[in-house]
Amino acid sequence: MPETVVHLGADPLRAEQVVAVARGRAAVELTESARKSLTTARQHIDALAEATQPTYGVSTGFGALAVRHIPVDSRVALQRSLIRSHAAGAGQPVETEVVRALMLLRLRTLASGYTGVRPVTADTLARLLNADITPVVPEYGSLGCSGDLAPLAAVALALMGEGEVVHEGRVVPAAQALASAGIEPVVLAEKEGLALTNGTDGMLGMLLLACADLRRLFDLADITAAMSVEALLGTDRPFAADLQALRPHPGQAVSASRIFAALAGSGIVASHRGPECTRVQDAYSLRCAPQVHGAARDTLTHVELVADRELASAVDNPVVLPDGRVESNGNFHGAPVAYVLDFLAIPVADLASIAERRTDRMLDVARSHGLPAFLAHDPGVDSGHMIAQYTQAAVVSELKRLAVPSSVDSIPSSAMQEDHVSMGWSAARKLRKAVEGLTTVLAIELLTAARALDFRAPLEPAPVTAAVRDLLRTRVPGPGPDRHLAPEIAATEELIASGAVTEVVNAKLEESR
């Protein structure tokens, strides 16, 4: 059961909690321990605010302007100016789920007690989430160092009752949305502007959402591969456990086991298992599916480890330590997150690439072992799935470009004070696009493999692959004369995104155990 309330306190957040708030609109609450930590840290900031010695973020300017000491009567204006000037994003608004993830992750760091914000500021951010008020955050503006500054500043601006938000399905002024929800805008005090903007929360939020999506898509890829192997009269022998054990990568073992189980009981596979079959071995795109899919799984496992470490982190600069010291640090640098965002884009592209090769094989009459050309109803009159493969190829080509890393780039900023940045936000944005692309590629393989299985009648597919095909047939008809294909691809994508395919597969695999 998804969580309906996520409590923020001493325990690290879990990835599924972030997804529950970002996508499932789960509510958030600060624990009593979090409130105590907030109060204690704020007392330290208040003491430093009254001291004659300047403290960065409390009584000084920011970035390259940190050399200026700011008098007490200008500090409210200082915080307000910081947020207004930093909310300098451009481009289209990012997705609501990304902004909600960003807000939750920033709130998690605030609740840790290391930032020095007042309890009322953290409470107000929680109330925005619970009221489903989502600040409008433009796509461009973060360099992934000093945190996701412009995106987080757009959120802080809404806390102040300025800027625009999405509320009840409409873009409205923040002041209007806060008033309708009975939320008082925050007047930021010392240190709070920095605390609200100095985090890697946007890139981490997008990483966690991508991980959740890719776990499902990697599972799906094993099933579409099994359907393609079956449709192409391939063998299940390379997926046997004893062969996979010779190369003991964990992800490879999982994928091979799933493909092997999905093919169990297949009348199509059994039809060519005898000595009369002259084929010695299948093409790489079939036989090596566990090696490629498994490497993708192992990459994702590493990425999730990094994400878990980030979820246990308090990212801010400066930080307020339990003994009252306020220390500058570099924990806001997005390199750890940026690297894995880039890393993950590589197996996404390669998984899509091998899926496209399997699809193309089913359409080529010279390699499909008896299937009609392009799986057309009447080849020549009909083109079947010819152009669906073109679409796959176009997406795969795009995914290869998206696999080029962002984190190797760095453009200095803030008068060379911030002279090395991570570009992690950019890495996250392209990974989101890559996840969408992989969904499309796998949808086309699923659509094509199901059609190919229908052409193998009266031979029966395996119970697992048959169940997936039958589920697809509730949305997309079987073989026949050419139809408008784009809506069928979109319907298959929606079916995948719904999780229904995964549910059917898991249920069937459980039955066979």
Automatic annotation (TrEMBL):
Metabolic or biological pathway: Amino-acid degradation; L-histidine degradation into L-glutamate; N-formimidoyl-L-glutamate from L-histidine: step 1/3
Protein name: Histidine ammonia-lyase
Compartments, as annotated in UniProt: Cytoplasm
Domain of life, per lineage: Bacteria
The EC number(s) this enzyme carries: 4.3.1.3
UniProt keyword terms in alphabetical order: Histidine metabolism, Lyase
GO biological process, one term: L-histidine catabolic process to glutamate and formamide
Main location: cytoplasm
InterPro entries membership: Aromatic_Lyase, Fumarase/histidase_N, HutH, L-Aspartase-like, Phe/His_NH3-lyase_AS
Family from the record: Belongs to the PAL/histidase family.
GO annotations of cellular component type: cytoplasm
Transmembrane segments: none
Organism this protein belongs to: Amycolatopsis albispora
GO molecular function: histidine ammonia-lyase activity
Reactions mediated catalytically: L-histidine = trans-urocanate + NH4(+)
PROSITE patterns, alphabetized: PAL_HISTIDASE
